[in-house]
Structures are given as structure tokens and as C-alpha cells.
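Reply to dn_fold:

You asked what the input looked like. This is it:
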Amino acid sequence: MKAMSTTKNEPAAAGSGPARYAGTFAIGGALTVHRLGYGAMRLTGAGVWGPPADHDESIRVLRRAVELGVDFIDTADAYGPEVSEQLIAEALHPYPPGLVIATKAGFTRPGPNRWVENGRPEYLRAACEGSLRRLRVERIDLLQLHRIDPKVPMADQLGAFRDLQGEGKIRFIGLSEVSVKQIEQARALVDVVSVQNRYSIADRAADDVLDYCARARLAFIPWFPLAAGELTAPGGALERVAARLGITTSQLALAWLLWRSPVMLPIPGTSSVRHLEENVGAAGVTLDAAVLRELEVAVQAAAR
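and this is what came back:
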């Protein structure tokens, strides 16, 4: 695999692992991270509920991610709930210089696989305070509104985030699962630095949001970047192309995301060190024009 070119602005005290080949992006113009991060949702139990099946492997995954040069970890108070944040602190605190941890607030969890929006300002404040305690930090690098609650005025929800930012409890504000119109409305209220929407090579419903983020230089953080394994299943649309390149289907799907936009910051998640190492290997993959055309044909054919 050929290494991709990186930008000159490397993060302070960043690891020297293979994640560096993905290049860098400065979130909010200030938090410079490698463009291949790690999503910590899968560290929890079934249904994103309760502790992991293998606690020690979860700790190894987090520590190995940092060794591989990953310096952006995405989590949420709702993962577990609370479990993911607790594991991150257990594995990595005190945090190495340059490590950016993003979390989210805006969901309550009545049970496994159940998610209920809660954008009441008092709830968002309490959620932030809880994340600060669990992560053992005085300030959250990036707090994202997990969903815009339709029952609460957007101004009230983001007003709570603005107040927390003014108090020094969060540095930057991000959004999740939003339209271009909602981003514009939010930016009239607060300074938004990132957007996290579902996106992958086979799921491009958020193309307009991604293009908006590119114009505005907002980080675009795709969740479900591997479609929960659907893109990487045997016989899938990517298998033939990946085999010819001598890489895995996961690496191919992630390499495509990195190629798609310079503001893209994929956060593939896993509870396995082996899968983590495979995913980070995508940072060193380059895709030429012929491969991109072949990939496009394969994905379009599979969608028919």
C-alpha cells in the first residue's frame, strides 16, 4: 500500500503510527487531528446497552488505537449509557498530549436499542456535567448535540451549549444528524465546527450536507462508515475490487471516504484489536481514477 500525502500541520505530540497517513484536519481551526479516528460506541454491550462482553479487550482496543496514531475518539453519554466514557477514562487517563475526545448529549436510554431525544436545557447541562466527571476532564474538546429534539426550540438547546461554552466546560460545539437548513439555523445561534451524519460509500443521502461542510470547512464525521459490516460481507460489492488491490473491504470503504472530501473524518468502531488494526490500515491506501470508477460501478450495480 502506498502512503497518502499528509499535511504539514501535524498535531502536537501526535503518535507516529499508521493513522498519520490519513492526513490531518483542524477541527474548529484549532484541534488538529489525524483524519482517521475511532468511534467508541461498539465498546458497550448488545443494543449499545451495558458493559462490554470483554472488558479487557475494550481497554486494549482504546490503548492500541492511540499507539496506532489515532488522536480523535468519538463517544456519547448515551453509549451504555455512560459505559463508553467510563472505559475511555479507565484506559487512557491521564490523556496523552494531542488526544481529542468528542462526546455527545441529547438522548435518554430507556433500554437496549431504545433512544429518546431530550433537548431540555437542564438535561443537556446535566449530561455535560456527567460527561466531564466520567471522562475526568475540566473541559470537553467537542460536545455534539446528539439529535435536535423537535419538542424543544433549537435556540433553547443550543443556548444551553452556548452557556456551557461560555463557562469553559466545552471548547467546541457540533451537531449530529442534521440537514443543511438546520446547520444554517444552528450557525446563526452558535459557532458550529462539526457535523456527524450517517454516510458511507453505499449510503450518500447526506451528500448535500457533506458538500456544505466542505465549503464551510466544518469537520464531517460519518457514522456507520462501514454500514455495520454490510459493505464488508463476503460477496459484497467491494470484495472483487479489494481483492485485486490486496486490501480488505473495510480498508477499501474507509479509503474511499478519506478520498471523498478533505473535511471527512471517519470514525470506524470495533471492539476487537484485530479489526482496529485492519481499519487503521486504510490510512495508507491510495485510490487512483481507474479504481474509483470500478468501485462506483460495483456499488451502483449492487444497489439495483
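The chain has a mean pLDDT of 92.
Hope that clears it up.
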